[in-house]
């Protein structure tokens, strides 16, 4: 299946080991900077709740709108970048978009203004993942799971850095100053993309919908439903700890503990999928996430909550690199960006409903019942994954 993902290049055009290493290091660094902005809003939610006097339902709309915008743009932008061989240009535009969004957030003094900034964040985030997967699928033809797994370390670093940076800056600079300061890493990422990457030579096939096959659609559903469980859990974790009377700083640091496990699980999941198959890793990860999320809501011991959140994070971090390489292998006629945009982008559109609905659930029935409902989504995704091709 993976042999037909991209058109074959001549032997002279084969990437060298040095080129592969440079691309992997650059993409992993850019992944950290990109996903930093993917988790920039959750640690800000408790402060926004206080500043704007918002309910949990209103807070849930903030990450929802940005994620929804990103998810619907990703397939189209992935296809356009493949057809026009403009992947690097799209990535630069996305990072500049992040900087504009953070400046907008720094100027926001109302709920509607915050929502507008979240939309800008969503536009910025719509360009990275389809393009990054195309780069790595091109440069790594025999160990794609390994490459995507190492690339996934950037996700862990970015997700870890976001709550740490916000909780460090917020008491010193307030919401406006924090947001303005956090526009700077995006500009660094844009400069790195221009200076360190060159456009892959292949061009995607014509026809957006020709790349959306039944297995791609099924993988999209698995990614979306499984992602909803993890995204909802992570989004509300700082607020959950805050509801237990921990400070904003403590809530941010306790949330960061969950993310650290991704430093091990993403490379491990990628390498394991090269050996035993993509589907098997997905099923194990989703069942594990279900078990640990259920256990989390049943304990009141802080050390046990930390351990269970770390294990939930470990399982949740196993499958992103596997999903992306799986999508690339299910693509046809060089439409890697299209397939990844569909699986990752529209999958995220499903998961983006999670903070919205679970925020409403928290208002109505409390954290425990809402978290338990999220856990069962992981189990549903695992059942659907049984129907994926081996």
Summarize the structure.
The chain is mainly alpha-helical and 390 residues long. It is built from 16 helices and no strands.
Written overview of the protein:
- It is built from 16 helices and no strands.
- Helix 1 (17-38) runs antiparallel to helix 6, helix 13 (302-330) runs antiparallel to helix 14 (336-351) and helix 15 packs antiparallel against helix 16 (367-385).
- The protein is 80% helix and 0% strand.
- The chain has helices at residues 17-38, 45-52, 56-84, 87-106, 111-125, 128-139, 144-181, 184-196, 214-243, 248-260, 262-276, 278-297, 302-330, 336-351, 353-365, 367-385.
- It is mostly helical.
- The protein has a single domain, classed as MFS general substrate transporter like domains (Growth Hormone, Chain: A, Up-down Bundle), CATH 1.20.1250.
- The protein is globular and about 60 Å long.
- The longest helix has 38 residues, at 144-181.
- The model is unreliable at 1-12 (pLDDT under 50).
């Amino acid at each position: 299946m993976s042999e037909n993902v991209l058109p074959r290049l001549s032997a002279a055009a084969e990437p060298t080991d040095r080129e592969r290493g440079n691309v992997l290091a650059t993409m992993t660094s850019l992944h950290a900077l990109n996903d930093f902005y993917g988790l920039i809003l959750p640690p800000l939610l408790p402060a926004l709740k206080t500043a704007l006097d918002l309910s949990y339902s209103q807070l849930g709309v903030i990450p929802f709108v940005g994620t929804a915008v990103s998810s619907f743009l990703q397939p189209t932008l992935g296809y356009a970048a493949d057809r026009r061989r403009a992947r690097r240009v799209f990535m630069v535009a996305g990072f500049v978009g992040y900087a504009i969004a953070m400046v907008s957030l720094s100027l926001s003094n109302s709920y509607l203004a915050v929502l507008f900034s979240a939309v800008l964040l969503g536009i910025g985030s719509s360009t990275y993942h389809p393009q990054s997967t195309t780069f790595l699928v091109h440069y790594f033809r025999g160990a794609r799971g390994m490459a995507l797994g190492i690339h996934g370390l950037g996700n862990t670093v970015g997700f870890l850095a976001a709550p740490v940076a916000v909780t460090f800056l917020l008491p010193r600079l307030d919401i406006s100053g924090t947001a303005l300061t956090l526009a700077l890493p995006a500009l660094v990422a844009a400069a790195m993309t221009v200076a360190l990457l060159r456009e892959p030579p292949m061009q995607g096939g014509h026809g957006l919908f020709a790349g959306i096959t039944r297995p791609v659609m099924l993988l999209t559903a698995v990614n979306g439903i499984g992602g909803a469980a993890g995204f909802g859990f992570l989004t509300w974790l700082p607020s959950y700890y805050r509801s237990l009377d921990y400070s904003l700083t403590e809530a941010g640091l306790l949330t960061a503990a969950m993310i650290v496990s991704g430093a091990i699980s993403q490379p491990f999941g990628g390498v394991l999928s090269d050996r035993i198959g993509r589907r098997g890793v997905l099923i194990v990860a989703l069942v594990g996430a279900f078990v640990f999320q259920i256990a989390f809501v049943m304990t009141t011991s802080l050390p046990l909550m930390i351990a269970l959140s770390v294990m939930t994070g470990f399982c949740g971090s196993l499958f992103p690199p596997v999903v992306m390489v799986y999508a690339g292998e299910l693509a046809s006629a060089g439409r890697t960006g299209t397939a990844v945009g569909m699986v990752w982008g529209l999958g995220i559109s499903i998961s983006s409903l999670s903070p919205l609905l679970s925020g409403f659930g928290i208002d109505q029935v409390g954290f425990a019942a809402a978290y338990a409902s999220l856990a069962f989504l992981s189990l549903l995704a695992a059942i659907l994954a049984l129907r994926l091709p081996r």
